[in-house]
Amino acid sequence: MRLIRTPFPSIPRPLRQLGERLWHSRALTQAWDAAATPYRYVAGHLRRFMPKGLFTRALLIIVIPMVILQGVLAFLFMEKHYDLVTRRLAQAVIREVATIISVIETYPQDADFRSITDIAANDLGLSIAVLPLEPLPPPRPKPFFDFVDQVLSNEIRTQISRPFWIDTVGRSSYVEIRIQLKEHVLRVIARRSQTYASNSHIFIVWMVTTSLVLLVIALIFLRNQIKPIEQLANAAESFGKGRPIDDFRPRGALEVRRAAQAFIEMRRRIERQIEQRTTMLAGVSHDLRTILTRFRLQLALFGDSEETAALKSDVDDMNHMLEDYLAFARGDGDEQARPADLSLMFEDLEAEAEIAGAEVSSALIGETTVVVKPIAFKRCLTNLVTNAARYAGTVRIEGRNAERWLTITVEDDGPGIPPEERENVFRPFYRLDAARSREAGGSGLGLAIARDIARAHGGDILLDDSPLGGLRAKVRLPS
């Protein structure tokens, strides 16, 4: 292969050869990309219209090859069958007509040709008439797709070799042939079914019927195979949302059973870990609360003074911090999901914001009853609302339950959070120095607890700019 010269002839030859190889490989890559562009374009559009479900895709995998295969077989078989049978039938009819012509010309003593007419009608199924000699009618326009007309015309030219006129269009059920003899004109009327393969549709009927039967059987078996996968997906989704899983056990094919059994074992390990963590945290909480209670009792014995007031404030802060730490470590615990009334929950949120000194308004659109872990979900929303009320004067709460999604937004007119810090504030114990100081209260776990609860319900929390000028926190989870 001839290498194209590079514009740097002063470069040493090994390096120049290496560069030329790289240039050629890049050119080949570009050529391949250019050739693959139409394929990517078509594949992208097909992917947009292709079904997304496993059942529908599996059904297409079965149906499309079946339709293509049967279409090809039907076309090839029908073409050969129709062609061959039509030619054989046309040859037989024209052979019978040639025999009648031979009888008419051999035995001219039958003046009215009644005998040959009866024989043709009774034994051959042909209606013939021997007419006086006259010019044949002008030829009719030949049908473009009428194979019968072509075959009959060719057979008449081959077997009879006389002037003829043929009509395969005028009367759809019959074919009329006129042949000019020496002294007469022979008119033959035959049923159209005598000249072509009229029973080819039987093959189509049987093919379509058997295909439908096989397709129904395939649908039944395919549905039985897809159903365990759907049950596994529903169980995993319910477990991810913290909802109970009822009557789930491995079913279906071996691979699906293995996946289901692995999911069950994973769920057991997670539940056992949560149970152990909850038990440990309950013990730790009891022990620490006992110590804090002793501190309060000892401070109460000292009486009221500036020193004891400061110590009591520290003990209260420690108690609040302990509650926050335990809530973050505990998560949603073993609380079960159940229907909860959002309207009542919004009333409590308004009260919390008003206690914090903010002006609050709320609106709720759609169904007010949702399936959540009420205590945990209320804590999630309470953290967002109190966090907004602590740094803003106006708080607006909006809820929308539609299209299988529950969306709750909490907006304020406070200082907001810079875009580059909006993911960091969800980290445990993370604080913003400018807007959120330790003197403002809190342990730095409010947003972390809120997002943890939202994700435990299968959703998430996103932060954005609010039309009020501050921060907008959006809780979105499947309803």
Give a topology summary.
Elements: H1 13-49, H2 54-106, H3 114-124, E1 127-132, H4 147-159, E2 164-167, E3 174-180, E4 184-191, H5 201-240, H6 254-302, H7 306-330, E5 338-341, H8 342-355, E6 359-366, E7 369-372, H9 374-391, E8 394-402, E9 405-412, H10 446-456, E10 460-465, E11 471-478
Parallel strand pairs: 6-8
Antiparallel strand pairs: 1-4, 2-3, 3-4, 5-7, 8-9, 9-11, 10-11
Helix pairs in contact: 2-4, 2-5, 5-6, 6-7, 8-9, 9-10
What do you see in this structure?
The protein is an alpha+beta fold and 479 residues long. Among the domains are: 1-50; 74-194, Beta-Lactamase; 334-478, 2-Layer Sandwich (Heat Shock Protein 90), CATH 3.30.565. 57% of the residues lie in helices and 15% in strands. Strands 6-8-9-11-10 form a five-stranded mixed sheet, covered by helices on one side. It has a four-stranded antiparallel sheet with strand order 1-4-3-2. It has a two-stranded antiparallel ribbon with strand order 5-7. β2 and β3 form a beta hairpin. The model is unreliable at 1-8 and 434-439 (pLDDT under 50).
